[in-house]
Every structure is written in structure tokens, then in C-alpha cells.
Amino acid sequence: MQKIVCRKAGKKDFEAICQLRHQLLNDPEERLALEYAPYDEKNDREWVEYCLRCKQRMVVLVAEDQDGICAHSIVCVEKVSPKMQAYVTYKKKARLVHLYVAINRRHQGIGTALMQYTFKYLKQKGVEFIDLECYVGNDKASALYDKVGFKDVFVEKRYTFS
């Protein structure tokens, strides 16, 4: 098993992150699990570029080994406004927006290592908790989130007009 290093991503990681996302978002089984709209490479590249550029609000972290980047996470960090502090018990929270592990690198502890690094990184930045959404039926992702300590808080329901 190769040594995995987790770290904050930089501009130099842009192409590798985009290639990983391209692989995953073009895979039919992945798309089904994620319920994503058709993949648009131009829009996705713009999204990744925005996340790497918007350092106050977005955090992009990567896991890599000797072969390069094999996973990434994107987290949105929110500070609670003074007016909202009367209604909530925290001052800073985060939302896991994306966590992708290369298909051929799954079940090797990479997702767990990246999540643990994400927790450590966010805690050092004063974030008090992190939440996420996971589609029903995305059992592999749900198992990872359970394994690293996420708890179910509520269920969101959706009705789609045909």
C-alpha cells in the first residue's frame, strides 16, 4: 500500500483535480449514484477554478501518493453573521460539497484519510462542525461518512414535477 499524503490544494493541482472529476463524472454508475445533470466539462473546470480561487469561503484538499492526486474534497466554510448568532449555537460551520476518490483507488483508506485530514484542517481554522448531503442509495459514500463519525440528523424529501 502506498503512502498517502493529504494537503491543501493549490493552483498547480487544477489539472489533476479536473482529470479526476472528469473520470468520475463521466462514469455512468457514478452519475446514477450522484443524480447529477449531464456532465459539462467547461462548467466543471470553472467550478474547480472558482473553488481554488475563493480562499475565504472554499477549501479544496487533496490526497496524493507517488502516482499523483487520487482524491479531493471541496468544503464551503461559513461564518455566522452577528444577527444570526442569537439563533444558533455556533460561529463557524462547514459543508462538505464534494468528496471524490478515484474509482481504482477505493477501499484503500484514502477517503477515510482525506476526511480525517479535512476534520483536522477545519478544526484548526475554528470550524465547529461540518455537515453534508448524501443521496439515498449512495451506500458506499454513506458507509464512509458513518465510519468517520457523521450522524444522520434529518431526511430531506423531494417531489419532482414531470
Classified by CATH, the class is Alpha Beta
Helix/strand order: EHHHEEEHEH
Low-confidence stretches: none
Rg from C-alpha positions? 16 Å
How would the blueprint of this fold be written?
Layout: E1 5-8, H1 14-25, H2 28-34, H3 41-53, E2 58-65, E3 68-79, E4 92-101, H4 110-124, E5 129-132, H5 139-147
Parallel strand pairs: 4-5
Antiparallel strand pairs: 1-2, 2-3, 3-4
Helix pairs in contact: 1-3
In short:
Helices cover 35% and strands 23% of the residues. It is built from 5 helices and 5 strands; from the N terminus they run E-H-H-H-E-E-E-H-E-H.
Description:
Helices cover 35% and strands 23% of the residues. It is an alpha+beta fold. It has one domain (5-147): Gcn5-related N-acetyltransferase (GNAT) (Aminopeptidase). The protein has a 5-stranded mixed beta sheet with strand order 1-2-3-4-5, with helices on both faces. Strand 2 (58-65) and strand 3 (68-79) form a beta hairpin. Helix 1 crosses helix 3. It is globular and about 50 Å long. The chain starts with a strand and ends in a 15-residue tail after the last helix.
